[in-house]
Protein backbone atom coordinates (compact mmCIF):
# COMPACT_ATOMS: atom_id res chain seq x y z
CA UNK A 1 0.00 0.00 0.00
CA UNK A 2 1.27 3.35 -0.93
CA UNK A 3 0.78 6.05 1.65
CA UNK A 4 0.81 9.65 0.59
CA UNK A 5 2.07 12.35 2.92
CA UNK A 6 0.52 15.76 2.61
CA UNK A 7 3.03 17.35 4.99
CA UNK A 8 6.26 16.46 3.21
CA UNK A 9 8.90 19.16 3.68
CA UNK A 10 10.17 21.13 0.71
CA UNK A 11 13.61 19.61 0.21
CA UNK A 12 14.22 21.13 -3.22
CA UNK A 13 16.65 24.03 -3.32
CA UNK A 14 15.21 27.04 -5.10
CA UNK A 15 17.60 28.48 -7.73
CA UNK A 16 17.66 31.98 -6.24
CA UNK A 17 17.33 31.10 -2.55
CA UNK A 18 20.71 32.75 -1.95
CA UNK A 19 19.15 36.16 -2.48
CA UNK A 20 17.54 36.09 0.97
CA UNK A 21 21.04 36.13 2.50
CA UNK A 22 22.44 38.92 0.31
CA UNK A 23 24.02 41.84 2.18
CA UNK A 24 22.63 44.28 -0.39
CA UNK A 25 19.08 43.71 0.87
CA UNK A 26 19.88 46.17 3.66
CA UNK A 27 21.13 48.81 1.22
CA UNK A 28 19.59 51.22 -1.27
CA UNK A 29 19.33 49.35 -4.59
CA UNK A 30 20.46 52.46 -6.49
CA UNK A 31 23.89 52.07 -4.87
CA UNK A 32 24.49 49.03 -7.08
CA UNK A 33 23.33 50.69 -10.30
CA UNK A 34 25.45 53.88 -10.61
CA UNK A 35 24.85 56.19 -13.57
CA UNK A 36 28.54 56.43 -14.44
CA UNK A 37 31.97 54.85 -14.00
CA UNK A 38 34.23 57.89 -13.62
CA UNK A 39 34.68 60.88 -11.32
CA UNK A 40 32.38 60.92 -8.28
CA UNK A 41 30.76 57.66 -9.40
CA UNK A 42 33.97 55.84 -8.46
CA UNK A 43 33.17 56.55 -4.81
CA UNK A 44 29.67 55.10 -5.20
CA UNK A 45 31.04 52.02 -7.01
CA UNK A 46 33.60 51.37 -4.29
CA UNK A 47 30.92 51.71 -1.61
CA UNK A 48 28.85 49.07 -3.40
CA UNK A 49 31.87 46.78 -3.70
CA UNK A 50 32.54 47.17 0.02
CA UNK A 51 29.06 45.76 0.69
CA UNK A 52 29.76 42.91 -1.74
CA UNK A 53 33.00 42.01 0.00
CA UNK A 54 31.10 41.46 3.25
CA UNK A 55 28.36 39.41 1.58
CA UNK A 56 28.13 35.68 2.41
CA UNK A 57 26.69 34.85 -1.03
CA UNK A 58 29.04 36.87 -3.23
CA UNK A 59 29.95 33.82 -5.32
CA UNK A 60 26.31 32.93 -5.99
CA UNK A 61 25.56 36.53 -6.91
CA UNK A 62 28.42 36.64 -9.41
CA UNK A 63 27.43 33.27 -10.86
CA UNK A 64 23.88 34.54 -11.36
CA UNK A 65 25.10 37.67 -13.16
CA UNK A 66 27.48 35.70 -15.38
CA UNK A 67 24.91 33.09 -16.33
CA UNK A 68 22.13 35.61 -16.92
CA UNK A 69 24.58 37.95 -18.71
CA UNK A 70 23.43 40.96 -16.71
CA UNK A 71 24.21 44.08 -18.74
CA UNK A 72 24.33 46.61 -15.92
CA UNK A 73 24.73 46.86 -12.18
CA UNK A 74 27.29 45.58 -9.70
CA UNK A 75 27.01 41.86 -8.93
CA UNK A 76 29.39 39.75 -6.91
CA UNK A 77 31.67 42.73 -6.38
CA UNK A 78 32.21 43.31 -10.12
CA UNK A 79 30.97 46.00 -12.48
CA UNK A 80 29.67 45.21 -15.97
CA UNK A 81 33.07 45.89 -17.58
CA UNK A 82 34.85 43.84 -14.94
CA UNK A 83 32.48 40.94 -15.53
CA UNK A 84 33.17 41.12 -19.26
CA UNK A 85 36.90 40.96 -18.53
CA UNK A 86 36.42 38.09 -16.12
CA UNK A 87 34.34 36.21 -18.69
CA UNK A 88 37.28 36.34 -21.11
CA UNK A 89 39.77 35.20 -18.48
CA UNK A 90 41.05 31.68 -18.06
CA UNK A 91 39.74 31.70 -14.49
CA UNK A 92 36.19 31.95 -15.75
CA UNK A 93 36.73 29.28 -18.35
CA UNK A 94 37.80 27.00 -15.52
CA UNK A 95 34.56 28.02 -13.73
CA UNK A 96 36.46 29.22 -10.67
CA UNK A 97 34.67 32.18 -9.04
CA UNK A 98 36.88 34.77 -7.31
CA UNK A 99 37.91 33.93 -3.77
CA UNK A 100 36.63 36.39 -1.16
CA UNK A 101 39.64 35.62 1.02
CA UNK A 102 42.08 36.83 -1.64
CA UNK A 103 43.88 39.97 -0.38
CA UNK A 104 42.36 43.10 -1.83
CA UNK A 105 44.44 44.92 -4.41
CA UNK A 106 45.93 48.25 -3.37
CA UNK A 107 43.75 51.22 -4.34
CA UNK A 108 44.89 53.07 -7.45
CA UNK A 109 43.56 56.48 -6.43
CA UNK A 110 42.93 58.38 -3.22
CA UNK A 111 39.25 58.39 -4.15
CA UNK A 112 39.22 54.59 -4.19
CA UNK A 113 41.18 54.37 -0.93
CA UNK A 114 38.78 56.80 0.74
CA UNK A 115 35.67 55.03 -0.57
CA UNK A 116 36.77 51.72 0.94
CA UNK A 117 36.26 53.21 4.39
CA UNK A 118 33.03 55.13 3.87
CA UNK A 119 29.34 54.43 3.64
CA UNK A 120 26.48 56.77 2.83
CA UNK A 121 23.84 56.98 5.54
CA UNK A 122 20.10 56.99 4.86
CA UNK A 123 19.94 60.71 5.69
CA UNK A 124 22.58 61.54 3.07
CA UNK A 125 25.58 61.99 5.35
CA UNK A 126 28.80 60.07 4.66
CA UNK A 127 30.09 57.91 7.49
CA UNK A 128 33.71 56.83 8.03
CA UNK A 129 34.74 53.30 9.01
CA UNK A 130 38.38 52.89 9.87
CA UNK A 131 41.27 54.44 11.76
CA UNK A 132 41.90 58.14 12.22
CA UNK A 133 44.59 58.11 9.51
CA UNK A 134 44.47 57.01 5.88
CA UNK A 135 47.68 55.87 4.20
CA UNK A 136 47.95 56.11 0.41
CA UNK A 137 51.08 55.81 -1.73
CA UNK A 138 53.38 56.74 1.12
CA UNK A 139 51.36 59.76 2.26
CA UNK A 140 49.32 59.91 5.46
CA UNK A 141 46.07 61.86 5.66
CA UNK A 142 43.50 62.36 8.36
CA UNK A 143 40.07 61.11 7.33
CA UNK A 144 38.83 64.71 7.06
CA UNK A 145 41.79 65.74 4.90
CA UNK A 146 41.22 62.80 2.56
CA UNK A 147 37.50 63.58 2.34
CA UNK A 148 38.23 67.21 1.49
CA UNK A 149 40.83 66.37 -1.18
CA UNK A 150 38.57 63.81 -2.86
CA UNK A 151 35.67 66.29 -2.98
CA UNK A 152 37.49 69.53 -3.84
CA UNK A 153 40.51 68.29 -5.79
CA UNK A 154 43.04 70.14 -3.61
CA UNK A 155 44.54 69.98 -0.16
CA UNK A 156 42.75 72.00 2.52
CA UNK A 157 44.07 75.35 3.70
CA UNK A 158 43.93 75.34 7.48
CA UNK A 159 41.69 73.12 9.59
CA UNK A 160 38.82 71.22 7.96
CA UNK A 161 35.48 71.84 9.64
CA UNK A 162 32.01 70.41 9.15
CA UNK A 163 28.95 72.48 8.32
CA UNK A 164 26.35 69.80 9.14
CA UNK A 165 27.13 69.50 12.83
CA UNK A 166 27.59 65.71 12.91
CA UNK A 167 30.45 63.26 12.40
CA UNK A 168 30.15 63.40 8.60
CA UNK A 169 32.75 63.10 5.82
CA UNK A 170 30.68 64.25 2.84
CA UNK A 171 32.72 66.68 0.76
CA UNK A 172 30.13 69.41 0.38
CA UNK A 173 29.68 69.40 4.17
CA UNK A 174 33.36 70.28 4.73
CA UNK A 175 35.12 73.65 4.61
CA UNK A 176 38.64 74.99 4.95
CA UNK A 177 39.79 78.57 5.60
CA UNK A 178 39.53 79.46 1.88
CA UNK A 179 35.90 78.36 1.66
CA UNK A 180 35.00 79.98 4.98
CA UNK A 181 36.53 83.30 3.94
CA UNK A 182 34.71 83.12 0.62
CA UNK A 183 31.40 82.47 2.38
CA UNK A 184 32.01 85.31 4.84
CA UNK A 185 32.78 87.72 1.99
CA UNK A 186 29.64 86.66 0.14
CA UNK A 187 27.48 87.16 3.22
CA UNK A 188 29.02 90.57 3.85
CA UNK A 189 28.38 91.62 0.25
CA UNK A 190 24.77 90.44 0.45
CA UNK A 191 24.11 92.34 3.69
CA UNK A 192 22.27 95.63 2.95
CA UNK A 193 24.27 98.78 3.66
CA UNK A 194 23.30 100.65 6.83
CA UNK A 195 21.32 103.80 6.17
CA UNK A 196 23.39 106.91 7.03
CA UNK A 197 22.41 108.86 10.13
CA UNK A 198 20.09 111.81 9.49
CA UNK A 199 20.01 115.16 11.19
CA UNK A 200 17.21 115.59 13.71
CA UNK A 201 17.71 112.09 15.13
CA UNK A 202 19.60 110.59 18.05
CA UNK A 203 21.84 108.71 15.60
CA UNK A 204 22.53 112.06 13.91
CA UNK A 205 23.58 113.48 17.29
CA UNK A 206 25.87 110.47 17.88
CA UNK A 207 27.42 110.99 14.45
CA UNK A 208 28.28 114.58 15.36
CA UNK A 209 29.94 113.37 18.56
CA UNK A 210 31.78 110.57 16.75
CA UNK A 211 33.09 112.87 14.02
CA UNK A 212 33.70 115.75 16.44
CA UNK A 213 31.63 118.19 14.40
CA UNK A 214 29.40 121.03 15.60
CA UNK A 215 26.14 119.58 16.90
CA UNK A 216 23.20 121.14 15.09
CA UNK A 217 20.02 122.24 16.86
CA UNK A 218 17.72 119.48 15.52
CA UNK A 219 20.16 116.75 16.53
CA UNK A 220 20.66 118.27 19.99
CA UNK A 221 16.90 118.44 20.50
CA UNK A 222 16.45 114.84 19.27
CA UNK A 223 19.04 113.64 21.78
CA UNK A 224 17.36 115.58 24.60
CA UNK A 225 13.98 114.08 23.71
CA UNK A 226 15.52 110.59 23.64
CA UNK A 227 17.02 111.07 27.10
CA UNK A 228 13.64 112.13 28.46
CA UNK A 229 11.94 109.07 26.96
CA UNK A 230 14.64 106.84 28.45
CA UNK A 231 14.04 108.20 31.95
CA UNK A 232 10.27 108.06 31.53
CA UNK A 233 9.74 104.77 29.68
CA UNK A 234 13.06 102.94 29.87
CA UNK A 235 13.70 103.23 26.11
CA UNK A 236 14.87 105.92 23.72
CA UNK A 237 12.53 104.71 20.96
CA UNK A 238 9.37 106.62 20.08
CA UNK A 239 6.17 104.68 20.83
CA UNK A 240 4.32 103.69 17.65
Automatic annotation (TrEMBL):
Source domain of life: Bacteria
Keyword Endoplasmic reticulum in record: no
Cofactor binding summary note: Binds 1 [4Fe-4S] cluster per subunit. Following nitrosylation of the [4Fe-4S] cluster binds 1 [4Fe-8(NO)] cluster per subunit.
Example GO biological process: cell redox homeostasis
One GO cellular component term: cytoplasm
InterPro entries in the record: 4FE4S_WBL (IPR034768), Whib (IPR003482)
Post-translational modification: Upon Fe-S cluster removal intramolecular disulfide bonds are formed.
Domain 4Fe-4S Wbl-type intervals: 23-85
Binding-site residues for [4Fe-4S] cluster, renumbered to this chain: 24, 52, 55, 61
Keywords assigned: 4Fe-4S, Cytoplasm, Disulfide bond, DNA-binding, Iron, Iron-sulfur, Metal-binding, Transcription, Transcription regulation
Cellular location(s): Cytoplasm
Gene Ontology molecular-function annotations: 4 iron, 4 sulfur cluster binding; dinitrosyl-iron complex binding; DNA binding; metal ion binding; protein-disulfide reductase [NAD(P)H] activity
Cofactor(s) it depends on: [4Fe-4S] cluster
Role played: Acts as a transcriptional regulator. Probably redox-responsive. The apo- but not holo-form probably binds DNA.
Family membership noted in the UniProt record: Belongs to the WhiB family.
PANTHER family referenced in this protein's UniProt entry, alphabetically: TRANSCRIPTIONAL REGULATOR WHIB1 (PTHR38839:SF6), TRANSCRIPTIONAL REGULATOR WHID-RELATED (PTHR38839)
Protein name from the UniProt record: Transcriptional regulator WhiB
Gene transcribed to yield this protein: whiB
Amino acid sequence: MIRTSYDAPDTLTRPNAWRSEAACLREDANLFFPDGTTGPWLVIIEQAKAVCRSCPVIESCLKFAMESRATDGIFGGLTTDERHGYRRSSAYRRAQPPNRSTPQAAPKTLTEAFARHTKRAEDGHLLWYGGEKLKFQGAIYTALQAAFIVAHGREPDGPVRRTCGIDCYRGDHLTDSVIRERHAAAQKAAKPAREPAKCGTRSGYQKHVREKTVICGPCRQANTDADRRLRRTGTTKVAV
